[in-house]
Design a protein that fits this description.
The protein is α/β, with parallel strands linked by helices. The chain has 3 domains: 47 residues, no CATH class; 225 residues, 3-Layer(aba) Sandwich (Aspartate Aminotransferase, domain 2); 138 residues, Alpha-Beta Complex (Aspartate Aminotransferase, domain 1). The chain is 46% helix and 13% strand. It has 13 helices and 14 strands. The strands form 4 sheets. The chain has a 7-stranded mixed beta sheet, sandwiched between helices. Helix 5 links the parallel strand 2 and strand 3. Helix 4 runs parallel beside helix 5.
Length: 490
């Protein structure tokens, strides 16, 4: 890469200052930081690895520098097209300058001619994400492959993967085997593609809910070549545990059936990452879709698609219709540069170190209230506790009370709930099985959680459960008094 001497702009070839009255040595010292910043960026592009973290002021300076390369910021530029990055509000400029967006109408990964700076940001983001997956999370199969960062949530990214598979498959392949996981996104993704959903049932093994592999094999054998692909899930709400993607990938390889893995927030789990690597090495994996916000702690709206076949991953980017919003990559660009590789490794490691504490606190609250923690080995992100001593109505009250007490993210799943999604009827919706048999509550120890939050979670949950019991006892005492009054009247 050519060396950029920014100081040369203000210091002439004769070594004298072009800015009258300012000593040359002062200029060189002041501008060395600017040159260092550009060198930092160039090393990232040439070495293909995430650079050491930068302080926020330098990241902002780099952002301003890169956005100045986009055509709308050229003083001499006159836009004569229908889309020229014009803003009606000057206030919007304070949010960043990636107004042209990213990609082109034929490919979200293509360089945008009007936005050289935005294109550089996209390149750095792809390099950074691939570096984290390949080197930090030990996904060696990415060495000969690539990643595609999409400005779409997990569900829409799965939809784009399905459309990509549909385009390259026979017209008779119209069915999708879907290992049941009670989240609406996957169902809607399949239905939005005009494909037929074939739900693979789950089975309950002690406390856990897992995919029935025998049923999966039977469905695959029965429907044969009409199956477009199989969608499995690795990150899920307890008591559902991650699919056995290693075994499933072997089955799909033997049947030459594409495999799409919904790995929404699985990157923070070593157990899941190890399964992904084994699945690629021993079976068939076409696409893995992971959320950006859940794994990298950025605003909602993006996902990364990766897999062992470079061509297939690039094809997903070509399926995106039109130019894309640049906000997602800008957010990730800032986060990658500020946190760095070691920073993300520490965030993921901190979560793993916090797990025993979280499980201990959750279990103690359950035991103190006459309940127990569900044993869901294999799911090291989401955990659950029974609510056997509470009625369905009280379970609903618990969920509301937790939210109003600023304890977000907890899910209370009552029994006997059915839900219709796009014409598909799901009994026991929320538990990923027709009848789990008991009401329960789930909570997650996800990346970004702090130890003080775990302690406060335990206190608020315990207080909430005890308050529900007190209300019940108060109602019962009131009923007893009413009965006594009735007897006295008699």
């Amino acid at each position: 890469m050519p060396k950029l001497d920014i100081a040369g702009v203000l210091i002439g070839a004769n070594g004298k200052s072009a800015a009258s009255g300012i000593p040359v040595n002062h200029l060189r010292v002041g501008l060395s930081a600017h040159s260092s910043l550009l060198s930092h960026l160039l090393r990232t592009l040439s070495n293909r690895v995430l650079p050491p973290p930068l302080p926020p002021p330098q990241i902002l300076a780099l952002l301003h520098l890169l956005t100045s390369l986009d055509t709308q910021n050229h003083p001499q530029n006159i836009g004569c097209g229908e889309r020229e990055a014009r803003l009606a509000s000057s206030l919007l400029l304070s949010r960043g300058g990636l107004i042209h967006g990213i990609g082109r109408s034929g490919d979200v990964n293509e360089m945008q001619p009007k936005a050289a700076g935005s294109s550089v940001i996209c390149c750095v983001v792809k390099i950074g994400v691939k570096d984290l997956l390949q080197n930090s999370l030990k996904m060696a199969f990415l060495k000969k492959s690539t990643v595609t960062v999409l400005p779409t949530c997990t569900g829409l990214s799965i939809l784009l993967c399905l459309l990509t598979l549909k385009k390259s498959s026979p017209p008779t392949a119209t069915k999708v085997l879907w290992c049941r996981i009670d989240q609406k996104s996957c169902i809607k993704s399949v239905q939005s593609c005009g494909l037929t959903l074939l739900t693979v049932p789950t089975k309950k093994v002690n406390d856990t809910v897992t995919t029935d592999l025998v049923a999966l094999s039977s469905l695959l054998a029965f429907h044969g070549s009409s199956v477009l692909c199989c969608i499995t899930t690795t990150s899920c709400f307890a008591p559902r545990v991650p699919d056995d993607i290693v075994s499933i990938s072997k089955i799909l390889k033997s049947k030459n059936t594409p495999h799409l893995i919904n790995n929404a927030y699985g990157l923070q789990s070593n157990f899941i990452n190890d399964m992904l690597v084994q699945s690629v090495n021993k079976g068939r994996v076409d696409y893995v879709v992971s959320s950006l916000d859940k794994n990298f702690m950025v605003p909602v709206g993006g996902a990364v698609v990766f897999g062992p076949d470079k061509g297939k991953i690039k094809d997903v980017g070509k399926m995106y219709p039109g130019r894309a919003n640049g906000r997602v990559v800008e957010d990730l660009f800032v986060s990658l540069l500020e946190v760095g590789r070691e920073g993300y490794e520490e965030l993921w490691e901190y979560r793993r170190r916090l797990l025993p504490k979280f499980v201990k606190v959750f279990g103690e609250v359950a035991e103190a209230n006459g309940e127990r923690l569900l044993k869901t080995e294999g799911n090291d992100i989401s955990f659950g506790m029974t609510l056997e001593n509470f009625t369905n109505e009280e379970c609903g009250d618990i969920g509301s009370m937790l939210f109003t007490r600023c304890l977000s993210g907890c899910r209370v799943v009552p029994t006997g709930v059915s839900k219709n999604i796009g014409g598909e009827e799901f009994r026991g919706f929320g538990s990923s099985t027709d009848d789990y048999g008991v009401c329960y509550l789930t909570a997650a120890c996800a990346v970004g959680m702090k130890e003080r939050e775990v302690n406060e979670f335990g206190k608020r949950l315990d207080s909430c459960l005890k308050e529900v019991v007190k209300k019940r006892e108060k109602r019962e005492r009131k009923k007893e008094k009413e009965k006594e009054k009735e007897k006295e009247k008699e």
